[in-house]
Design brief:
The protein is an alpha+beta fold. The protein contains three helices and nine strands, in the order H-H-H-E-E-E-E-E-E-E-E-E. A hairpin with a 2-residue loop joins strand 2 and strand 3. The longest helix is centred in the first third of the chain and has 27 residues.
């Protein structure tokens, strides 16, 4: 008889541990399911404000500054400086540029380094490398950019362009 009572009491305890928090949440929100489940507008504004603080002013024209390219055989290397607009430390995992010129195959330049740690509002210099055709482009234009960042363990990928000029 004791085993049966213990079984039923444990089952009821399990049900109570699931149902009681739900009932408390509903009673705290005046039994309104929408208010109990979804965050209020004030809470959403607080979250978006905090996320906005992390991203600072966002990207601008001087976030990425490219230096003079250096040609060596059929490869090119371009020094690049990244000024972080973020108010938190970030990890630059990937940076890719596609450069095009009229009548030529696009040239893909990738970050030579594996990844870079960038302090909050810091600046880091890295090198972009890629293979070029037999003759270097005479009027190169950046037609695509892809950046992969890690912020507090969250991977963020920014991509822009694929044809035409940015």
């Amino acid at each position: 008889m004791r085993d049966g009572a213990l079984k039923w009491s444990l089952r009821l305890l399990g049900i109570a541990l699931v149902v009681v928090p739900i009932l408390v949440a509903f009673s705290a929100s005046n039994w309104d399911p929408k208010e109990a489940v979804l965050p209020s507008e004030q809470e959403l504004n607080q979250i978006s404000g905090r996320v906005g603080e992390i991203f600072g002013g966002g990207f601008s024209e001087d976030t990425i500054v490219l230096g003079q390219p250096t040609f060596s055989g059929n490869s090119v290397s371009v020094p690049a400086t990244f000024k972080s607009p973020f108010k938190v430390p970030v990890k630059l995992e990937e940076f890719t540029l596609t450069v095009s010129d009229q009548g030529m195959q696009p040239i893909k330049l990738q970050m030579e380094e594996d990844e870079l740690e960038i302090p909050a509002n810091g600046t880091v210099t890295f090198t972009l490398v890629g293979a070029i055709p037999t003759t270097p482009p005479s009027n190169p234009r950046v037609t695509a950019v892809s950046v992969t960042l890690e912020i507090y363990g969250v991977i963020i990928n920014f991509s822009r362009g694929s044809g035409g000029q940015l």
